Amino acid sequence: MSDNLVISIDAMGGDNSPRVVIEGINIAAKRNSDLRFLLFGDESKIMPLLKQYPKVAKVSKVIHTEEYVKNEDKPSQVIRNRNTSMYMAIDAVRSGRARAVVSAGNTGALMAISKMVLKTIKGIHRPAICTIMPHIDGKYVMLDLGANTECDAINLAEFAIMGNIFAKHALGLKAPRVSLLNIGAEEMKGKEEIRQALKILKNPQLDINCTGYIEPHDIANGAADVIVADGFTGNVALKATEGTARLVVRLIKRAVKRSIFAKIGLPFMMGVVLKIKKSMDPRSYNGAMLVGLNGLSVKSHGGTDGKGYAVAIDNAAKLVRQNFVDTIRQEVEKVDLDELNQESIYEGYYL
Amino acid sequence: MSDNLVISIDAMGGDNSPRVVIEGINIAAKRNSDLRFLLFGDESKIMPLLKQYPKVAKVSKVIHTEEYVKNEDKPSQVIRNRNTSMYMAIDAVRSGRARAVVSAGNTGALMAISKMVLKTIKGIHRPAICTIMPHIDGKYVMLDLGANTECDAINLAEFAIMGNIFAKHALGLKAPRVSLLNIGAEEMKGKEEIRQALKILKNPQLDINCTGYIEPHDIANGAADVIVADGFTGNVALKATEGTARLVVRLIKRAVKRSIFAKIGLPFMMGVVLKIKKSMDPRSYNGAMLVGLNGLSVKSHGGTDGKGYAVAIDNAAKLVRQNFVDTIRQEVEKVDLDELNQESIYEGYYL
Asked: Which of chain A's residues have a Cβ under 8 Å away from the Cβ of B246?
């Protein structure tokens, strides 16, 4: 497996594991012939599935684990249990046997174990959860989505640096427009730490195309390529977005169901319906990355199917091929954010 | 005008003032025969409009003002100028000449002047901005939407008390389900001040049907009647919701436009389109209330039309008739939140 790209998999994480996991690998392996997999989990459940998916069996090695992290487990209860499929899959990245880990399991546990085992990149104070989302004309990157409830200006600036690299790699942009999520009118614009983060990001020493603040209603318009927020705010924005999109779709469905006239028109609309469905399909955006660690840890949605799981694997592979983690390391080495922060406090002339 | 309900109006606030304002009064006056209006603003602009709308002229008294607050004015610049239409309209509530004030002008200035002139109700530490929004099966109330960027547990508990009364009055609910907006998995659920606020709200001394936390993706499902958040988070949730709803509608429009087939089906769909449009029409939800002050201050959307402005007036009148402000005063007098807060810190057995 030396010339190949190895990804370790927590085969027991997610609602319909390991079936969905194996189905996902089957799809991703067809698209990425260089991928090899370390499957951590219950052999008695994985082996019968590998018989059904001989392609997966060919590119995978199964490492039996007796235990696995359940959705209801508290991170503190499981973080030190080295015998779970999740822990062992993450540890394979630390030891160098794999380049990235994918799990559809317990988010809190995945974050906690990834942080403890992989450790934060030197120069990064806190890792963040990062994902890709659709806007009207394309895609954007948002972070943090929940790893850090409270953040200071330096944390936010670090997220911006990582998000910038992420957008370059994952979205193929040359100079992503990086914005800080904020609210309100000019004078009282949002929170102190956000204003301070903007000062840091405007420092010419940082090669970031920082476009200032973005208000939440402009996210969907594609006004920025990278949206930076603390984990609480980012999570609220993301989930409010998801909830509303689902609401509108449900309202339309219900209204169509109640109208005979609309039912007659429906066949003509199927093209449009399928197009919208495709462009908003959460499976196309599956895979939240824990960025800022010495290794890539990817969280798949727990309720996704094989198609969605394959997207998470694709994304992980893409970032590994582009040396995402090393690029972050290099960028962070170039600057001393604490110094930039002090400068902006004392001089404050970048704005 | 003694037996009538007087509302003071900042006739100069909003994008198309005073035209939209007068149109709004015209609509609202037809629906509410007891309403009388004090119109503060530039006589030379208001008088010609009153000739066009004799019904409005009959129920209104114009008080000429030389100055008005512009959208780009900073609150600190205008807060002490007693000669603006906004200041004078608010001051009419303080002096008892009007029971509520409506303005479509500068939000920051309206908040700042309302707070300074009307002052906070005794027992309430901070006023909040509150509005009504649509969910899948009805409406919900959300606060704070931006008056307070940072909040502690007591602030949040006060918002819950006020939101509870607001939902009883404005939505006609007997025991509104009051929830705190929060994120995350059990153990690390959100922020300390939110967890602490929940403890206070669970105290049986408070007669609130507090249903715990609500996650942002459940807002649109109608999982709560009152959603309580700090002003930063509430504003983000509200604006992300608005932005996404608009995105989905635009995506559908664009897809239909590009498909001949869909255009054929479109006439059959018009009933559904109009229904959805109506149920999500922002004009139907116009009017954000500044609650917690000695008097009611209502912010209309600056870009609304006469129909939307009339809804803001309707809402203001409805709350005045129900003695909304007095009810808050009475509820707040009943309990000592600081004491409940201390209790919950030391005993903490309500959860």
From this structure: 217, 220
